[in-house]
Design goal:
- This protein is α+β, with helices and mostly antiparallel strands.
- It has 5 domains: 223 residues, PAS domain (Beta-Lactamase), CATH 3.30.450.20; 118 residues, Beta-Lactamase; 101 residues, PAS domain (Beta-Lactamase, 2-Layer Sandwich); 160 residues, Histidine kinase-like ATPase, C-terminal domain (Heat Shock Protein 90); 114 residues, Response regulator (Rossmann fold), CATH 3.40.50.
- Helix content is 36%, strand content 28%.
- The strands form 8 sheets. It has a 6-stranded antiparallel β-sheet, with helices on both faces.
- The longest helix is centred in the middle third of the chain and has 47 residues.
- The radius of gyration is 61 Å and the shape is rod-shaped.
- The chain starts with 7 loop residues before the first helix and ends with a helix.
Length: 876
Amino acid sequence: VGAGVDALGLLVARTTDAVLVHDGRRILDASPAAVERLGGPAPAGLVGRSLAELVPTDARGVLEEAARPGEEGGAAGPVEVPFRRPDGSIDRASVLASPVHFRGRRAVLVVVRDPAGDAGRRARTPFGALFDAIPIGLYQSTPEGRMVSANLALVRMLRFPDRETLLATPVEDLYVVPDERRQWRGRAELAGVVSGVELRLRAHDGAEVIGRLSVRAQRGPDGGVELFEGALEDVTESRQAEARFRLLFETMAQGVVFHDPDGAIISANPAAQRILGLTREQLLDRSAAGAEWHTVRPDGTEWPAEDRPAVVAGREGRPVRGGRMGVHNPARDELRWIELESIPLFRPGEDTPYQVYSMFADVTERRAAEEDLRRSEDRLSSIIRAAPLGITLSRASDGVFLEVNERFAEAFGYRREELLGASSLELGLWDDPEDRQAAVREIEENGNLRGFTVRFRTRSGSVRAVRLFTEVITVAGELCALTLHQDVTESRRLEEQLRQAQKMEAVGRLAGGIAHDFNNLLTAIAGHVEFLLEAIPAEDERRVDAEGIAASAERARRLTRQLLAFSRQQVMSPRVVDLADVAESFEPLLRRLIGAPVKLEVSHRGESCRVRVDPNQLEQVLLNLVVNARDAMPRGGRLTIETECVEIEGRPLPGGSRFIPTGRYARLAVADSGIGMDEETLSRVFEPFFTTKPPGKGTGLGLSTVFGIINQSGGYIGVESTEGEGTIFTIFLPEATEPTRPAGPTRETPARERTTAAGRVLVVEDEEGVRSLTRRVLERAGYRVYTAATGSAALELLDAVGPVDLLLTDVVMPGLNGRELADRVLERAPGLPVLYMSGYTADEDVREAARRAAGFLEKPFTPEQLTIMVRAALGG
C-alpha cells in the first residue's frame, strides 16, 4: 500500500526538482522543473503523455522498470535512464519511483535528478527540497554502516529527536536482528537492487518498528559500492492489523472465503472448512462456479452454479446479501444450511472487482428450530382455529382486534376479515357498554379476568351471555389482551332449568307432605260425616250442615289428589293402551267441555302408538290441557290434539325445558291459537298454585297436575308459547312394546279359614283419628278389631291376642314402618293377608308395599271403601 500525500499537487507545483506523477499509462502532473527539462514551455507539454515518449526507443524498458514501485508497493531505488530533452539532445538522469495517492487515485511519483557530482554532494542534498517532503523514509548509508543522509520521514518513523542524532547512530544499532542487514546487503552488492525486504527495527525509544525496505547500490568509478540508497516504509500498523485480521479470520465462527473474479477460491478460514466439510487444500482446489458443489434453494430445488452469490457478485460487481443456501457437507454427508453474503472488492479507480469476499454462517440448527417453531405455530394456530371457544387478541389501548379465530367470528355472525382492525365498540358487540368499562376496571385492578360474565350482541341482534378469561401480554412491544370467550347462554339456561326443576321438586315434596297429613284429617272427617248422615233423618235441618261438611270434604279430597298428582305420589294403575284410542274416545266429552266458539281437531299420524299409563290419569291430563287452552281463547279459536309415534335422537324438549334421551316415543301435542304467554309466565307455568286467572277462577293446580302425572308415567312435557299467537304443549311418553290390555277385575286374594264368623283384623295406624274411625267401621261390619299406634306395639299385641286373619297397616309410620311390620308378622304367620293404607306414595316403601300387598287403600277413603277392601282381602 503506497504512501498517501494529501498536498501532493501543491508539492509538485512548488518543488525545484523534476517531478512527474503518472498512473502507469499517462502523466497526470509535472513540476515546472520537469516541464523545463523534459517537456517544453507548459505543463500541457507533459500531462497526458506516456513516460515512454520521453526516452529513446531502446531505453523504454529501462524507464518502465525504473518508474515501477518496488515489490508489494514499496519505493524503488534510483536507476539511471537516458532522457531526450525538448531540443532533441540526450541527457542522463537518475530516476526514483514511489507509490502515492493522487487526487483519490493510486499513482506513482517519479523524481528525475541529475546524476553528476560526487557521492558527498548527493548525500548532503539528495533530490533537493523533495527529499524531506516525501512521506516515505529515505536514506543513504555507507557499506560500513554509517548513515550519511536521512529525510524527516525516516527521523519520525524511528522516533529520533532530530536528524543529527539519527545520522550519529550506527546503522546496525537500528536492527533488532543485525543479521537482516548483512543478508540484504550481500544481495544488494550482487544484484544492485533489493526490493520489499521486511525488517524489524528498533526505534530510538526502544519500540519495535516493522519496515519494508527497497535499496539500490550506488557504485563508484571503480565499480565498488560507494553508497546504499534506501526507501523504508513503516508497515507496523498494517502488519498489526493483518495479525488482528488473521486472528479474527482464523477464530471467527462465521466462514470466510475469498474468490478471484472468476470464482476460484483463494483462501478460506477454519470455520469455512468446518461448515463446508472440506480441508483447506480441498477448498483451494475448488471454484464457486464448480459443478462439484451440491447446492439447493430453500424450497428444495437445485441452485444453479451461475446463480450462486459469489459468482453473481464477481460477474455483476454488486453485493449479494441475505441468501440462504443448502450445501452438501461431505465430511458429515448431510445437507447444511448457510446464510451468506458475497461482496465484490475493487481497487481504487477500477470498476471491475479483483476479488470477491463471501461470509456465511451455519444456520442448520437455527433452520431446524425455525421449522420446529413454525410447526409449533402451525399446531397452535390449528388448536386456536379448532378451539371450541372464541379467542381474540386485541390492542389494550383501543380494543382493536389484531387476531381472532373463526369460532369467535362465527359465534357473532361475522367473517374474520370484518373483525380484524375493528374494535368491539365499533362493531357494537357490547349489549351494555358499561360491561366493557367494568371489565377494564377489573383488568386494571387484578391484571386479568377470570370468568367475567358480560352480554354480547350478535350481528343478527340476539344477545348472548359470554364469560371472559383475559390475560394481558406483550406482543411486539405493545400491551395486548388475549381473551377466551365462553358462550354460557345455554349453560345459564340449563342452570335456570335446574333451579326450576329443583324448585318444582321442593314444592312437590312440600305438597306431598301436606297432602299426606291432610288425607289423614280428611279420612277422619269424611268417615264421621258419613256416620252423621246415617244418623240424621232427611227432614232434620242439621242434615244440611252435615251434607255441607261432606261436600267440602269431597272438594278437599280432590284438591289433595291434584297435589299428589303434581308431586308424583298418587297411586296409579298403569296398563298398555293406544294413545290415539284414548284421545279419540275422550273427544266427545272434550267437545262438550270447550263449547261451540272453539274448533277442536283430533288427529293421529302414522302407525298406532302404545304407551303404558293409567288411562284415567291420561284423561285427566287431556282434560286439564284442554280446559287451559279453552280459557286462553275467550273469543274462540282453534284447538288441535295430535298424536304420533316418533324416533328421537337425544335432544332438548320443545321450549328447552328438559332433555329427551334417544328412543321411540308416543307424542301428544295440544295446541291452541289463544293469547299465549310471556317469558315470565312460561317459566312458572308448571308451578303449583301459580295462575294468571282472576281470583276464584282457578286453583293453579291444573298444569302442575299434568306435569306430575307425565313425570310419574316416565314421560316428558315441554311448552312453547308466543304472545298473541298461541301455545303448544308437547308430551312424549315411552313407547310400550307389549300389546294393549283392557281394564281387568281387581286382583282377588284366596280366602283363608277364619277363627270367627267375621274375622279378626289387626289395625296399625299412628294417626288417632284414622285409627279410631277404622275400628268403628270394621266393628260395625262385624269384624273383631285390635288396634295399635306403632309397629312395635302391634307385635306385642299379637303376642297377647294370638293369630289374626288380616293385617291392615299404614305404611309411613315412625319407628317400624308398615312394610317392615308386615315382614315380621309374616314370619310368624306365613300367607297372612296384608292390606296397606296410605295417602303418600313418594316413599319407596309405599310403592314396594303396594306391589306385594293383598290390596292398597288410598287415603282419604270412605267407610264403604274400607269395608269393601277388607272384605276383598279376606276373600269374602
